[in-house]
Design goal:
This protein is mainly α. Among the domains are: 114 residues, no CATH class; 58 residues, no CATH class; 62 residues, no CATH class. Helices cover 35% and strands 6% of the residues. It is built from twelve helices and seven strands. The strands form three sheets. The chain has a three-stranded antiparallel sheet with strand order 2-4-3. Strands 1-5 form a two-stranded antiparallel ribbon. A hairpin with a 6-residue loop joins strand 3 and strand 4. Helix 4 crosses helix 6 and helix 11 crosses helix 12. The chain is flat. The N terminus is likely disordered. Belongs to the microviridae F protein family. It holds the Pfam family Chlamy_scaf. GO terms for molecular function: structural molecule activity.
């Protein structure tokens, strides 16, 4: 027990008495921490022993310095003395109370374990748990939509009719190519606020030709469009006079916008546009899950438990080796060296 206590308190282990090797079966049965835990875990003896240890440790801390000096100020020596039933009378004489406990039954012990275990409000079905893990860790949110719309989807029932039995494909691991973004920002690009209106003035220069008499008048009679080099005639009334738009004018140059009198954008509106564009670009690169937003914008890594994110508790992997078996001789239609098995 003394060596076990020393090991339990993370002190350096003592050497086995009598020159016994620490790999000796008897030493392992009596002193090895792993052996003792396997032997006494979740048993009445194990709980009772630890209750006595805790009580003895508390008593040693409250002893007068004279009594602690008797044990060389060594809690290990004190444990060995008070926990030995043969020293019960001496403990009474010195005023040391021998720790006594009421050992619980197996049912009471299991109840204590249940009382001290944090319970959840419910359990998540296997399909929902796998979907939550995929949604948190293996989904490329730039290319794949989330299947969990709200926390109600993980509760009782299936309000959105999600098929939880579908095994979805994970996104590819990021490399030089797969990490390329499909767009520069996540969402609509921000436009620069350059104003909304400007006064327009009319230029008095004549932009059209008038055909009222002569040969041109015959070509541009109402309903007649025989000149392919001319633009469509525009008739202003019921008479045969027409006004032709000049074909060399590509824009209405006779209309001018006075930009000096246009509504201008403020410095703050320009700054807002730049910052919004930067925010959307960061969202596209870092992601828009809550933990990704906090890390991308504020450079802070939050524990998964605080953000209701599925957390990896542990696991293992086993490598599998494949050795191809080559055919050593030609056989029918298969040549020598053909890979026939693994």
């Amino acid at each position: 027990m003394s060596r076990f206590l020393n090991r339990y308190n993370h002190a350096s282990p003592t050497s086995p008495a009598g020159g016994v090797s620490m790999t000796d079966p008897q030493y392992l049965a009596d002193c090895d921490i792993n052996t003792i835990l396997r032997k006494y875990a979740i048993t009445e003896d194990f709980v009772s022993a630890f209750q006595r240890i805790d009580a003895a440790r508390d008593q040693f801390a409250s002893l007068p310095s004279e009594l602690r000096a008797r044990f060389g100020h060594d809690v290990k020596a004190y444990f060995e003395f008070v926990l030995n039933p043969e020293n019960a009378e001496e403990c009474k004489r010195l005023g040391l109370l021998v720790p006594t406990t009421v050992e619980p039954s197996a049912e009471e012990l299991l109840q204590q374990i249940a009382d001290n275990t944090r319970t959840t409000k419910g359990t998540v079905e296997t399909g929902k748990a796998v979907a939550k893990i995929w949604d948190d860790w293996y989904r490329d949110e730039n290319l794949q939509d989330s299947i969990i719309q709200s926390s109600d989807d993980l509760g009782d029932g299936n309000p959105n009719g999600i098929d939880w039995n579908v095994l979805r494909k994970r996104g590819k691991r990021h490399d030089y190519f797969t990490s390329a973004l499909p767009w520069t920002q996540k969402g609509q690009a921000i436009e620069l606020p350059l104003g909304t209106s400007a006064p327009v003035t009319y230029n008095a220069t004549n932009p059209h030709d008038s055909y009222l008499t002569g040969k041109q008048a015959g070509l541009w009679q109402k309903g007649n469009n025989t000149d392919a080099d001319r633009a469509q005639a525009c008739y202003l009334g019921d008479d045969d006079s027409a006004k032709r738009i000049r074909p060399d004018l590509q824009e209405p140059l006779w209309l001018n916008a006075d930009l000096s009198r246009a509504t201008a954008a403020t410095i703050n509106s320009l700054r807002m546009a730049f910052q919004l564009q930067r925010l959307l670009e960061t969202d596209a690169r870092c992601g828009t899950r809550l933990c990704e937003i906090i890390r991308g914008h504020f450079k802070t890594i939050c524990p998964d438990a605080r953000l209701q994110r599925s957390e990896y508790l542990g696991g293992s992997s086993t490598p599998i080796g494949f050795l191809p078996v080559a055919q050593t001789a030609e056989n029918g239609d298969t040549p020598q060296g053909n890979l026939v098995a693994n």
